[in-house]
Design goal:
Blueprint lengths: L12 E8 L2 E9 L3 H15 L3 E9 L16 H9 L3 E3 L6 E9 L2 E4 L8 E3 L5 E5 L4 E11 L2 E2 L1 H4 L8 E2 L2 E2 L3 E13 L2 E13 L5 H16 L20 H4 L10 H9 L5 H5 L3 H5 L6 H11 L3 H5 L3 H15 L1
Antiparallel strand pairs: 1-2, 2-14, 3-9, 3-11, 4-7, 5-9, 6-8, 10-12, 13-14
Length: 329
């Protein structure tokens, strides 16, 4: 029997199946008819186009002038070496780092593989990828610039950004290898018209599939914020003597922060917007593992809310602090 609804049903179940390392299958349901594809399609697009990863963007080899040159004692020419290098996937250990320069020196006889590029700063998630063969007299000295980015950027667009003496490289940043979905019917009570999203997500190992999904969701939220800025500025209560306290007891997840910023605050025991608004700049910077980018992001989110704090007296601020402490138990 049909029922009149005022809001669509919200999915309540998500099953996660680990296929192998860096490959998961999600089953999310039940969606009302037509809603599953409205969610799945943009998420797939964002997973493939907006998930950040690392890639080499520039290469410098001692004694080499351009990509069509060769290296004495190396079986492969520079062009072939570059093709092999593009298939090596780098994972920078500090996620706050956007750019890093690395230097390497190899002496023959030696076959060079991805694992030979591991350093204190970077891991290689494709350790068995072959790059080059050196004979007993060969010596290969090279430097790489690794950058963080999204999508694909051709070498011609990078030429003006790299230092002199470097060869620009086509940069394929996306760490997501596969993102596909199917929509299946699912029975809810007596209604066979509900839907299930079956999502297959595989990454190259730089990040996990769940991290990739979190990034895509963060981008999705940020793209939608422009349609309703009021989501970031909770309405003040109508009571004339409340001093707008409802603003201060909003949970921090209503700020729409990135996963990294949110997790740092959560681990520090910060639950409410009021705790952040009543903090000084130095207190915020001292939160453990909260990097400069995260501090800048939080300050940006709070910028429109800070005037509410400036209007408060010290007594009112103290009362709000006590209320927050009570809420946290």
């Amino acid at each position: 029997m049909n029922k009149i609804k005022v809001t669509p049903s919200v999915p309540t179940k998500m099953e996660v199946e680990k296929i192998k390392d860096n490959h998961i299958r999600l089953n999310v349901y039940p969606y009302e008819s037509g809603y599953a594809i409205s969610v799945a399609h943009p998420l797939r697009r964002l997973l493939l186009s907006s998930t950040a990863g690392y890639a080499p963007v520039a290469l410098k080899i001692e004694g080499v002038q351009h990509e069509f040159d060769s290296v004495r004692g190396m079986l492969e020419d520079v062009a072939e070496f570059i093709i092999n290098l593009k298939n090596v996937r780098f994972k920078v250990k500090d996620p706050e780092v956007d750019s890093i320069e690395l230097s390497y020196e190899f002496k023959g006889p030696k076959e060079i593989y991805g694992k030979d590029f591991v350093t204190d700063e970077v891991d290689i998630v494709t350790p068995d990828n072959f790059l080059a063969t050196l004979n007993e007299d060969a010596e290969l000295q090279l430097s790489l610039i690794i950058k963080k980015g999204i999508g694909y950027v051709p070498s011609e667009e990078l030429r003006s950004e790299i230092p002199e003496g470097y060869i620009p490289l086509d940069a394929f940043f996306t760490p997501v290898k596969k993102a596909v979905y199917e929509i299946e019917r699912v029975l809810v009570e007596d209604n066979p018209n509900y839907e299930k999203i079956v999502f297959d997500i595989e990454t190259d190992g730089q990040i996990s599939p769940s991290e990739a999904l979190r990034m895509a969701l963060d981008v999705f939220k940020s793209q939608m914020e422009i349609f309703d800025k009021e989501l970031l500025i909770p309405e003040s209560p109508k009571s004339s003597n409340s001093n707008g306290e409802d603003l201060f007891i909003q949970p921090i997840d209503s700020l729409g922060l990135s996963a990294r910023s949110y997790n740092c605050l959560n681990k520090a025991g910060i639950e409410y917007i009021g705790e952040l608004l009543l903090m000084g700049e130095n207190e915020l910077k001292e939160i453990k593992n909260l990097g400069k980018k995260s501090v800048d992001e939080i300050n940006e989110r709070l910028a429109e809310l800070r005037p509410a704090v400036e209007k408060l007296s010290e007594e009112q601020k103290q009362a709000i602090k006590e209320k927050l402490e009570t809420l946290k138990g």
